[in-house]
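Thread: zinc ion complex, take 2
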Amino acid sequence: MSIDKYKIVIGCEIHCQLTTKTKAFCACENRYGGMPDSRVCPVCLGLPGAMPRISKGYVEKGAIAGLALNCKIANFTKFDRKHYFYPDLTKGYQITQYDIPLCSDGFIDLPYTHLPETQRPGGKDFIGTDFTGKSNDIDGKYKRIRIERIHLEEDVGKSLHLEGAHSYIDYNRSGTPLIEIVTKPDMTSPDEAALFMQTAQEILRYVQVTNGNLEEGNMRCDANINLTIWEDGKEYHTPISEIKNLNSFRAIKDACSYEVQRQLEEFKTDRKEFNPGFKNTMGWDEVNGKTVVQRTKNSFIDYRFVVEPDIKPFSVSEEFIENARKQVGELPEAKRTRFKKDFGLSDFDVETLTSSRDLSLWFEEAASQSKDVKKVANWILAEVLAILNEKNIPITEFHLTPKHIAQLADSVAEDKITSKQAKDVFATMLETSKYPEQIISELGLTQVTDNDAILNFVKEVVQENPKAVEDFKNGKTNVVGWLMGQVMKKSGGKANPKTATELLKQILSEV
Ligand SMILES: [Zn+2]
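Output below.
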């Protein structure tokens, strides 16, 4: 017997922390780090009798996330209790949303250009249909990954297994507001799973509902993966593995790739098949590069869901949804398409300029004040980003304004200064925060572009050098360069060289 072919099936669950000021159901500050257990109260410690209240902005940020990911928003929803035991879950249950999630039926379109060539249309590993066999190709440009639901829930505390015999629990994270994004099993390669997480991160950061810092655990991905195998014409499905808590794009890709090979080998050995009541819960051992079984669980575990009795089910008005929709704004992919079309910038430049919402807005502000958008883009891409990298700061902390760059770009575009002089102006600008126009006049850099003024210099030079003019008439054209030098000298180096050359040639031909 031999395996004819196989297909990878991946669905993701992404937990994403929201940036509300307070935790989900209490007034404790919602932020990362700090002294363990320094931001806790009876509610997030789950003390008896403590009453949860929905924090300001929690449902709204959830709705903004849902709308940014093309979901429908429920007009009526509620919170539920999911019961299970875990040391970092103090209450013995987690407040989540069970059967009426806030958001449902969304999608993310992944650009083929961000996938390996073999996985694009026409490539040997391209799969153009989703799990149900329906086409998931959008305009030959994107692969659509459907989102089943996004619900609101609270995070649990954090267990720290330090060296020695002790484990510690930090409850600062307990009660932090999360959304859980659940996809359909539409991803067919580890690259797609990683790209999905990356695209979700970019969009959710753009709409400012999360910091999206993977290293701080703001976003974590659980990947559900199995294989459809065709062997001697017969179709088989391997048992599902759920790889928990993948916290980098690399980890998602590597863990899924490893699991594909492991499942293939396992199938060849024991021919174990998919059973809806069973799945392997695994962890990813980054150091050894392998998945590790944590437990094999019945996926129909009874969490005894009940409606959270301390929080009233609530309506979500159309007005509320519309207000959330307004805050979504232009999403990164739409922005990229527009930048390419309106400004004629290259794919690479556009990718960089839209890599964060703040940078893209900064660029647009500068572009709107300048006559030469390309020059503005070049200054930002080459000089500004170099400074930001060097200082390791975001554009929002840069001390110069978009107006500085717009003015600098225009000064070159209008031939007030040369590109070489612009570098000096930029350096002075960095030091003094003065505007280019002020620096140019203070340093006396202004090029003379006034034709009459340059013409006077040219006439004077021609008058003062009859010998050279005579030589020119006798065919020694190389004296033009020397005469040009005299014109530049007379102007103190400020005459626009192009204009001066043109005028000199014109006068010489008339003499
Ligand atoms: Zn609290």
